[in-house]
Design a protein that fits this description.
By secondary structure, this protein is mainly α. The chain contains 2 helices and no strands.
């Protein structure tokens, strides 16, 4: 069992693939963490714009 572990540790044939998998996972995790605050800000901004436009229409007629 110890011999298998040593052989596994010495081989690096899939190291680059693992690097890309980890990098992609970090990018996805960051996107998931950053998306909700951006969505909240965008939604509140669009609601403010909609309210301003609604007030403008009712005042002009």
């Amino acid at each position: 069992m110890l011999r298998k572990f040593r052989n596994f540790r010495r081989r690096d044939s899939g190291a680059v693939t693992m690097d890309w998998v980890i990098l992609a996972g970090v990018i996805v995790a960051l996107a998931v963490l950053v998306s909700p605050p951006i969505l909240d800000l965008t939604l509140s901004g669009s609601e403010d714009i909609a309210a301003d436009l609604s007030d403008y229409r009712t005042q002009s007629f």
